[in-house]
Specification:
The chain has helices at 3-16, 21-31, 39-61, 69-88, 106-131, 138-170, 174-195. Helices cover 75% and strands 0% of the residues. The longest helix has 33 residues, at 138-170. Helix 3 (39-61) packs across helix 5 (106-131) and helix 4 (69-88) packs antiparallel against helix 7 (174-195). The chain is mainly α. It has one domain (3-195). Keywords: Membrane, Transmembrane, Transmembrane helix. It comes from Xanthocytophaga agilis. This is HupE/UreJ family protein.
Length: 199
């Protein structure tokens, strides 16, 4: 296995590791309002998040600026809580079809990218510990980011499929599903905020 493959697997394992479930929770919160038919919109949303965390992952790994890790650990669950709260105020379209899609919410894409900047700082601590004495960090950085993106897409695919099955089996409407899921994610985020409280 070459270095590129090794860092790609590390990135994939890092995002799918259940011990780091805060990032998984954020991805779930991002996608909670969407249905499986809106997979293109979900893909754009996850990619926006990836762009955001790739920027700060690169900058922080290159040590171009310093930051307090305890502040980042506190801010990550804050982003999860805010996303869950925004979901609660989301107005579910009366109808949606592939031939008549709803208008995309560009503000949500920018939100995902902005919150991705914070999550990237959280990823950077792990990546820096892996780099050691690598002569160049660009290839490991690229491989790690691709691994993260692949992991995120798999998490999203599993979540959207399971959510779709639950909605059909339990015969729940989209609005109720969003309220229950976002409420649960928000509750977990509050517990994480309490654990990482820095004030």
């Amino acid at each position: 296995m070459n270095s590129f493959q090794a860092y790609l697997i590390m990135g994939f394992d890092h995002i799918t590791d259940l011990n780091g479930y805060d990032h998984i929770l954020f991805i779930i919160a991002l996608c909670a309002i969407y249905q499986i038919t809106e997979w293109k919109r979900i893909l754009v949303l996850v990619t926006a998040f990836t762009i955001g965390h790739s920027i700060t992952l690169a900058v922080a790994t290159l040590q171009l600026f310093t930051y307090r890790t305890d502040v980042v650990e506190f801010l990550i669950p804050v982003t999860i809580l805010l996303t869950a709260i925004f979901n609660l105020f989301y107005k579910v379209p009366k109808s949606y079809s592939l031939s008549n899609p709803t208008k995309p919410q560009y503000s949500r894409y920018f939100l995902a990218m902005g919150f991705g900047l914070i999550h990237g700082l959280g990823f950077s601590n792990y990546l820096r510990s892996l780099l050691g004495k690598e002569e160049s960090i660009w290839q490991p950085l690229l491989a790690f980011n691709i691994g993260l993106e692949l992991g995120q897409l798999i998490i999203v695919a599993i979540f959207v499929i399971v959510a779709s099955l639950f909605e059909r089996i339990l015969n729940t409407n989209r609005r109720d599903w969003n309220l229950v899921l976002s409420g649960a994610v928000g509750g977990i985020a509050l517990i994480l905020i309490q654990k990482t409280w820095i004030f």
